């Protein structure tokens, strides 16, 4: 870690020298900022932590995905876009099975994404046990995304790795749009949307339909999304409404062993293919909020949200039926005080969440229908967060921020199938205090440095508190950690943009999932991990915004030698080993050329280093590099706009594992199944027609 900090300090010194020597010509073309050039970065406003300030001035490691980038990537799943952010690694087994990690947090989760929080228009996409589902989001209805890297518990509650804030797309003008796409693996995509807007209100409605046979056997997917976002302004009050519905049926190929991966990566796991395992689900979420401006610089935000989900999953070992629903509220009160030297901002708020989760398992039969009951369970999960934040903007270029969050999480489990004993019980975790202290300083015009210290935590799931004998592990504790970070953003020689950060995070009470069956786990606290890292995002604009041709180069990535500090699991001591499931380095490179914003061509390259697959570091996945090419053509005439999109993925036909299963066990004498193969070379395209009125 010393070398990382020394290296970063050297960079900061060079930046300061450059600020004294270089002539800043920004004012010559500041009026013509384009959204798809690096010059627009200087104008981006972030809303994370309620900062409402330019990204340049934010005292945190925040990455932005603007609407234009989301549109360019509309032929791709959400993991393609998120994986272009340094520090983020979203593994993808299929359109519906993913694992999202930020700075190595969440890498040991068996199948789901946890220890990361996500919100869509203020609605949590994270359930009561910390599992986050974003893979079924429709990119076409997203206005932007902000990624807070590192613990954000001081404002958003549990979320040791970070928080992702998705903003719904809002209507800016009256529009009707339709697009149709086709691609490899019998893929089809249809999307239709309508937007209505005037000075006081707006409505945005979209419907999406996706079908695909998938790269692998037993990999078919059929998904429909219905999305609505609306706004209404009344005097000093602004109301926001969001409603989403997703209907999904996806077959599950599951993971495969090394022999199948090397010889026939398109095959599914034998037991899943034999039974035609699948997931069939419906999910609806809604949210409503009101932002109000009051006298004397008071501001309030009150939001209500909820979600309902039903799902069936046919698996080789049983048939799972699930139903869940949650309700919650989030309130923030804000006060601004201006002085001659700057201004203060004080925030106080809370978030409450109540969820009921009912799940049953049944014995499978030859006709693939559920028969005899194996289990019947009901869980009630709830938490509350109380948070406060104080900010001070000095006129002398300083921005200070301090926050504190109090969280309490409770589980109530009822065993409704008592044949094998009663495992019912309650679990209440102790109050968690998560502070955060951060600062940002303007070194010179368009060059800033920031530092932060933050605490984060993630509670275990209810299932992790259950022991194999039916008792409860009342001593189990949430994972928690401290993050120390130093970073800088800015411009060199006008056309070169940089965003560099170095951090060191320690996590204690590491939760380890012990597998005791194909569908059975329990958790223990088994150690401590170290997460040192260096992240960089470098962009160079080869042309001025006034030029017809635009050329942009981007290089970003991360170096993250994460390791176990103290990790003893039973009789095995894994201390000082590399952290399982996390690559040591990632590199992204891209080249974008655009002509008059009518023709875009973008080339991507992503490299991921080898990944340790077992805690003893005896097995690693191979490093890989993937090349993708995207093109876009835009033509306008009158009130009509036509766009054509083309994406050629895995240009070199690289054989790689797009997701891995760590510490895979073997059952029935079969080899462990570590690998989810990535798709072979594939082509996708679509046409989009819009009418503005």
From TrEMBL:
Record domain TonB-dependent receptor-like beta-barrel: where: 227-651
Superkingdom classification of source: Bacteria
GO CC annotation: cell outer membrane
Alphabetic keyword roster: Cell outer membrane, Ion transport, Iron, Iron transport, Membrane, Signal, TonB box, Transmembrane, Transmembrane beta strand, Transport
Protein location: Cell outer membrane
Domain TonB-dependent receptor plug as annotated: residue spans: 55-162
UniProt xrefs under SUPFAM superfamilies: Porins
Membrane topology of this protein: Multi-pass membrane protein
Gene Ontology molecular function, alphabetical: siderophore uptake transmembrane transporter activity
Pfam families: Plug (PF07715), TonB_dep_Rec_b-barrel (PF00593)
InterPro entries: Beta-barrel_TonB (IPR000531), Beta-barrel_TonB_sf (IPR036942), Plug_dom (IPR012910), Plug_dom_sf (IPR037066), TonB-dep_rcpt-like (IPR039426)
Species: Sunxiuqinia elliptica
Signal peptide positions on this chain: 1-22
Chief location category: membrane
UniProt similarity note: Belongs to the TonB-dependent receptor family.
Descriptive protein name: Iron complex outermembrane recepter protein
